[in-house]
Amino acid sequence: MDTARRIQKPSFGQTEINWDKLDKTKFYVVGAGIFTGITVALYPISVVKTRLQVASHDAVEKNAMSVIKGLLKTDGIPGLYKGFGTVVTGAIPTRILFLTALETTKVAALKMIEPFKLSEPTQAALANGVAGMMASFCSQAVFVPVDVVSQRLMVQGYSGHASYTGGLDVVRKVVKSDGIRGLYRGFGLSVLTYSPSSAVWWATYGASQRVIWRLLDDENAAPSEGKIILVQAAGGISAGATASFVTTPLDTIKTRLQVTGHEKRPTTKQVVRSLIADDGWIGLYRGLGPRFFSMSAWGTSMILAYEYLKRVCAKDD
Question: Which regions span the lipid bilayer (predicted)?
């Protein structure tokens, strides 16, 4: 057992960089550029997922490919980036809040559970899960208004939804009809969706990464850069698959609540009944394919960039 521990820790230890070892200014500045680039690459998937979730029962576009073809036909490539400006504007403060809360909470959680002498994968799952949940909860104050505005822009003119001239037009009309709280429509469901989703994602990532290292570890020297990237990517895919399956029903309900106009605003119960009446219980999993791909692709890209960023921004001892 002691031999196993001596073998296991060197490989994983060289991939883990603690929060107190980072140059925070460099971390935030470089991170803003990296994560904006990832958002540009993966944003169209969110547009497709959102349109599938809000489509009426008689909508012509029933799958991801038909949604993409419809957008390209009516708006060209810009159609795949509806609401992008709003998301990018809100992404920087949201990401700063999220990453700061994530790292500081993870350190605190690890200290709290250390006396229980749990296995390393279990410790990682608990600490990362708690950190992911708290990070998501803290960032919702900025994220929800951005989400409300961007999603309305994503579906404008589609399946009976209103059209807007831009993000400010959405804000003006929402505030006029519902007040400031209109920008926080679905806040409770957002917390219930993204906090557990983030907890499941980070818990799965933390645990699966350690399990994989345990399976791969040998008595050789430090792991290569390629091996580190493969293990982290595998952890990101596992996390995305698990989190998307667990939380898609709540995400579908939340999205429908956020994009519905003031004059026909439904309750959560009415949204659930409508989805089940149209498609049965499987209706709650509308957009599961794009959401799974989005969470896996975004999660894997994000975690590779995140871990790379931590290595780049690590302070020299």
Answer: 27-45
